[in-house]
Amino acid sequence: MLYVGYNDGVLVSENYGLTWDVFAAGDWPQEDQFAFDPNDPDTIYMVVGSDIYVTHDKAQTPWTMLAEQLPEGYSITTLHPSTDGTLYVGTFNPFTNPEDPGIFKWDGGPGPFVYVEFPTNAYEDPLNATSLFTHVIADDPAHDMVYLGGELTPVPGSEYNPFPDPEDDPSPVGYDAPNLRSTSGGSTWENMNNGSISSHVTSLIVDPGDSRIYAAQEGSTLWASDDLGVCWQPLATAGYPALVLDSNDNTRFFGGSWGPTDDVPEWKRGGVWVSTDRGAHFAAAGLQGDHPVVGDPSQYTTSVAVNSTSARIYATGYFGTGLWSAPIPAGL
């Protein structure tokens, strides 16, 4: 089964993308607002507008709105169902309450979502920041760990763009971003940058085999931690906006990059990239150059997915560039 979010909802294909059916109609559910329950693949959560919907039979019957919802004023940015049955909800905090950010969690009910505030010393003083944006949530059930990558908006010490001239330096302007970890299943939180990660994280991946956590710092570096996010080591210069770990080979990553022109570093020049050494190095794997998926500087590879047998890869881009697919060569 292949699912794709688009402007009017979610499409599904049962034949590798040859034909499509409407799976759910809504107000443009984003990838991070469409999530499968890891304990029950028939249960799927989806955000439509500011409401959370659920199906327990892969939408064979109509979607239903969860009886419990978030308070008014919060924009939902990501959903993360965990293996312990908790549904974590990351938000774009309201402008009316910029200095009190946190995360919502729900144990499946009955009962409401619980709001867990982040400690005030968990990230840089917001100063002129008006809100906190949650990019990604990941969990490690083996150690009761939850990780979160967030961004202050606007970024402290800048207008709205955290990046310098990419020809001079591909790294973003540094600030102690709200990249957090919880050792208590999301009940309490602490900063995990540890002087290493110097900006916001947009991808977090936990290797289920050994609990190694990977964090992609936007526009800069892929980091790895072997001690549950206490200390970090830099891997590749590969802060890809889309990153996926092969579920059948924990040494192999696929990343999606952006920008087709010479005014950005080579690793940012669009398309799909692959690493076969646990993220230490990446090489171009396709869709580079003048291909429509990266035919405009504002269009980049927004999502990458690998099928369950690791035989085929899928990639999407911005603004009508479509869904692309290719077989993964044997031995890659």
Any overview of this molecule?
With about 325 residues, the chain is an all-beta fold. The protein has two domains: about 1-240, Methylamine Dehydrogenase, Chain H, CATH 2.130.10.10; about 240-330, no CATH class. The chain has no helices and 26 strands. The chain has strands spanning about 1-5, 10-15, 20-25, 35, 40-50, 50-55, 65, 75-80, 85-90, 100-105, 115, 130-140, 145-155, 180, 190, 200-205, 215, 220-225, 235, 240-245, 255, 270-275, 285, 300-305, 310-315, 325. The strands form seven sheets. A four-stranded antiparallel beta sheet has the order 4-5-6-7, with no helix packed on it. The chain has a four-stranded antiparallel beta sheet with strand order 8-9-10-11, with no helix packed on it. Strand 16 (about 200-205) and strand 17 form a beta hairpin. The protein is globular and about 50 Å long. Residues about 160-170 and about 290-300 have low confidence and may be disordered.
